[in-house]
Amino acid sequence: MLRLLKLELQKLLLNRASKVLIFISFILPFFVIILSSLRIDFFGFFTLELGHYGLFNFPIVWHITTFFASQFKFFFAIVVVSMIGNEYSNKTIKQNLIDGLSKKEFILSKFYTIVFFSAIATFIIFIICLVIGLYYSSINEVSLIFRDTEFLFAYFLKLVGFFSLCLFLGMLVKRSAFALAFLFVLYILEWIIFGLITWQANLSIAEKIHNFFPLQSMYKLIDQPFQRIAISKAPNGQEFLYDFAVHWYEIAIVLGWTALFIFLSYRLLKKRDL
């Protein structure tokens, strides 16, 4: 595993564009710190300070931060599809196989890189949440501080699943731009199908089916936190109006898609004439 990971990291770090995109991917989540300290004066009428509204207190900070940080995953998605695009355009994929790397090892090297960078991104978010939470929250009980940290695992799994999809699309079309275009088409297609099911059946059935689709299932791992914020400001007893938890079946669906994308990537490479 370490040999394959080292091989892939060498390729990425020798590419200037990849290095820049990886750097941006790891830096962007730190903007959550800037967001938490944001102070906006509305013409002297009132001042908006997000950090002082309890939005970054424990345990809700784990939910809010992972939700917003997951929106920045597109930059590393470009790196993932470029990994495949460059292999075909530079013909390094053929050279690697000639040098003794099996097709299975080739795909695994990409997957290990995805897991590696997802783990680093998750660790960065862990540090950011801890720093922001300790600064703004008065909670000092360990059990409350680390409550809701399952959102970190959901964030990690969301990245791995999304980047595995990007890997599969890169293998499918061999070109970075086309792979990203297919990603957008898939997003539109999921919503078109959702609309058709809603029209033919009803909204409840459509939502249940929609949650099994690749992109939507990844999104559902970390639900939007806005209703949770509103509920936290509402009178007691209303916390059950909205279910924001990370459920085991949502994890299972994304794990299933991830395994399928890696398997299909391998099958494509195995059957393709290089």
TrEMBL record:
It comes from the Bacteria. The lineage of its organism: Bacteria, Pseudomonadati, Bacteroidota, Flavobacteriia, Flavobacteriales. It comes from Psychroserpens ponticola. It holds the Pfam family ABC2_membrane_2. The chain crosses the membrane at residues 20-40, 60-84, 111-136, 151-170, 177-199, 248-269. This is ABC transporter permease subunit. Keywords: Membrane, Transmembrane, Transmembrane helix.
